[in-house]
């Protein structure tokens, strides 16, 4: 019979966070092995529960969650998001500028589908959260990766960004706080990027899903608060700050220069209508979450579990010979570098699979985040301190053996 092939639109699409190494881990688990999974920021499996008031509010409203809602979402949670934009100093946002989605991920794809024609270009950071690159490709566009500079604490290289803008460029993606590096961008860098967007009439897509997961007293500045003459699409949700990954409750806010974007906004409205609506139970969680006690502050503040685990993971990793790591200011991840002189890695996906096979630890290789060289990997620091110590010890043992096998011991 004639083979049934996947669409060629998927040729350049990948999502290595759930890629071959995870499939290998699943097979190993079926064979009875216990795997330490450091590949996904799935907070619930590590004992980070959502706030009780969110859970109770969803249960209380479940009887009224069976019907379709407005295609953009219920009024009350959208109004809560509107108030949140005011807290973030984003001006001019009305209820109609807010779209609720099945997580920010659905809205990222929607924003790209509504914007791009074949051959259009979008500037995406390297390293990036790979859904952004995949969404651009799936929408017929070409992702063009600008470099984030490890030497400057993983801040975007604005000059590299400038060099890569062409007549086909339509938008700039900014992931702040950044996944996978944990970098937090200062106001000055954000203003430089906005000036580029202003000069070239580009849309800024701001992924701010970790805007409350901040350490050491750092503060997050929302890009859309810094200008009103550029079109901003800001994306956020409950998954990380409120430990509610499975509720799939996210939002997208259109702000800034909307007068010249009426056709694009019409397209977003059409796409929102086509998917009927976001899941209603998740929508019921938004108002309670945004208006309630912000327990994330307890986790990231002095003595907080996330802060302690960040510090522990950073020390354990950087104590390994040849491993360096910019200490994250935000988010849930480490993105350590392996010195190529000590770890001559040609294929970092194979490297990740070897680590999994030998030590039962699952990480994601750096090229899975569209990083330019096979010399980084990402891990989450969500396991409790004992498990984190065990996992990093296994990584250290594997790296020691790797150096010896390659004559670098």
Q: Tell me the total number of β-strands.
A: 15
Number of helices: 13
Unreliably modeled segments: none
Relative helix content: 25-40%
Q: What oligomeric state is this?
A: single chain
Distance between the termini: 53 Å
Order of helices and strands: HEHHEHEHEEHEHEEEHHHHEEEHEEEH
Mean pLDDT: 95
List the defining traits of the structure above.
EC 2.6.1.2; L-alanine:2-oxoglutarate aminotransferase activity; Aspartate Aminotransferase, domain 1; globular; alpha/beta; 2 domains; single chain; 13 helices; 15 strands; Aspartate Aminotransferase, domain 2; Aminotransferase_I/II_large; 409 residues; transferase; three-stranded antiparallel β-sheet
Helices, strands, pairings?
Layout: H1 20-30, E1 36-37, H2 52-61, H3 75-87, E2 98-102, H4 103-115, E3 121-126, H5 130-138, E4 142-149, E5 155-156, H6 158-163, E6 169-175, H7 187-200, E7 203-207, E8 231-237, E9 249-256, H8 262-274, H9 280-291, H10 296-300, H11 305-318, E10 323-324, E11 333-334, E12 337-338, H12 348-359, E13 361-362, E14 364-365, E15 377-380, H13 385-405
Parallel strand pairs: 1-13, 3-4, 3-6, 6-7, 7-8
Antiparallel strand pairs: 2-9, 4-5, 8-9, 10-12, 11-15, 14-15
Helix pairs in contact: 1-12, 2-9, 3-9, 4-5, 4-8, 11-13
């Amino acid at each position: 019979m004639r083979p049934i092939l996947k669409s060629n639109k998927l040729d350049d699409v990948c999502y290595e966070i759930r890629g071959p190494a995870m499939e290998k881990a699943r097979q190993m688990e079926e064979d009875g092995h216990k795997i330490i999974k450091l590949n996904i920021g799935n907070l619930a499996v590590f004992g980070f529960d959502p706030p009780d008031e969110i859970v109770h509010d969803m249960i209380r409203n479940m009887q009224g969650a069976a019907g379709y809602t407005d295609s953009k979402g219920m009024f009350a949670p959208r109004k809560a998001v509107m108030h949140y934009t005011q807290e973030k100093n984003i001006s001019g946002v009305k209820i109609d500028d807010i779209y609720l989605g099945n997580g920010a991920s659905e809205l990222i794809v929607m924003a790209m589908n509504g914007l791009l024609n074949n051959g259009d270009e979008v500037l995406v950071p390297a390293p990036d959260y790979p859904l952004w690159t995949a969404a651009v490709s799936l929408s017929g566009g070409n992702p063009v990766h600008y470099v984030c500079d490890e030497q400057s604490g993983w801040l975007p290289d604005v000059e590299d960004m400038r060099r890569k803008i062409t007549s086909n460029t339509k938008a700039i993606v900014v992931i702040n706080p950044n996944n996978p590096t944990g970098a937090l961008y200062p106001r000055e860098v954000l203003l430089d990027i906005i000036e580029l967007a202003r000069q070239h009439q580009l849309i800024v897509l701001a992924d701010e899903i970790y805007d409350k997961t901040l350490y050491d007293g750092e503060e997050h500045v929302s890009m859309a608060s810094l200008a009103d003459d550029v079109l901003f699409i800001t994306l956020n949700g409950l998954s990380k700050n409120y430990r509610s990954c499975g509720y799939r409750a996210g939002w997208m806010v259109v702000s800034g220069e909307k007068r010249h974007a009426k056709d694009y906004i019409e397209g977003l409205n059409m796409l929102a209508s086509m998917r009927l609506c976001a899941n209603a139970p998740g929508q019921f969680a938004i108002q309670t979450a945004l208006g309630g006690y912000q327990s994330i502050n307890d986790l990231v503040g002095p003595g907080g579990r996330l802060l302690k685990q960040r510090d522990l993971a950073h020390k354990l990793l950087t104590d390994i010979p040849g491993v360096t790591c910019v200490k994250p200011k935000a988010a849930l991840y480490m993105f350590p570098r392996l010195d190529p002189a000590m770890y001559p890695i040609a294929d970092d996906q194979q490297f990740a699979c070897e680590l999994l096979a030998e030590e039962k630890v699952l990480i994601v290789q750096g090229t899975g985040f569209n990083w330019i060289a096979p010399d980084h990997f990402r891990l989450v620091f969500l396991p409790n301190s004992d498990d984190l110590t065990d996992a990093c010890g296994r990584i250290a043992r594997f790296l020691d053996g790797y150096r010896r096998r390659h004559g670098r011991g």
